[in-house]
Amino acid sequence: WVNYNITVVATNALGSTFSDPVDIDVVYIVKPHPPEKVVVTVMGEKGWPFLRVSWDPPNKADTRSGWITLIYELRVKLEGENEWEKHIAGQQKMFNIFSLQSGGTYLIQVRCKPDHGFWSEWSSTAYIKVPEYFNREKSVWILIIVFSAFI
C-alpha cells in the first residue's frame, strides 16, 4: 500500500506549467478481484429448505494481515426472471437465503469491495436447484383453510 503523489505538467510553445500535487491513497481507488469458490448448498431439506452461500475472498486481497477489510454483497434470482434480489452480507463470508420457490433453479453471484473503494465485478454464477416441497406447502394451506372455516 503506497500513497502516490501526482502532478500534471503541461508544456507548449509558451512554456510549462504545473498542477497542484494530489496525494492518492491506493485503498480509495482499488477495485478488487471478485470473491472465489462460491459454493451454494440446500439446507433443511426435510423442513422448509434454504440456501447457504459461502465464498472465499479474492486470492490477491490481503485480508489476513488486516491491510484491507472487504464487504460482500450477493445477488440472487430465479432462473428465467429478470430482476436480481440483492443482499448485503457485511464482512461475513456466508449468507443464508430463505423464501424459496419449490423446484426452482437459482442463480447466485457475489462481489466485494474494500470499506473505502469500488465494487469488484460479480463472481462467476453458481446454479442450484431447490428440491420440490410443494406437497408440504399444499398441506399447510389446507390446514389453514380448514381451521379458518371452523373459526
Automatic annotation (TrEMBL):
Domain of life according to the entry: Eukaryota
Compartment(s) where it occurs, according to its Swiss-Prot or TrEMBL record: Membrane
Molecular function, one GO term: cytokine receptor activity
Keywords assigned: Disulfide bond, Glycoprotein, Membrane, Receptor, Signal, Transmembrane, Transmembrane helix
Lipid bilayer topology: Single-pass type I membrane protein
Main location: membrane
Record-annotated Fibronectin type-III domain positions: 34-133
Example of a GO cellular component annotation carried by this entry: external side of plasma membrane
Signal peptide boundaries: none
InterPro entries for the chain: FN3_dom, FN3_sf, Ig-like_fold, Long_hematopoietin_rcpt_CS
UniProt record similarity statement: Belongs to the type I cytokine receptor family. Type 1 subfamily.
Record-given protein name: Prolactin receptor
Originating species: Etroplus suratensis
Coiled-coil features, chain-numbered ranges: none
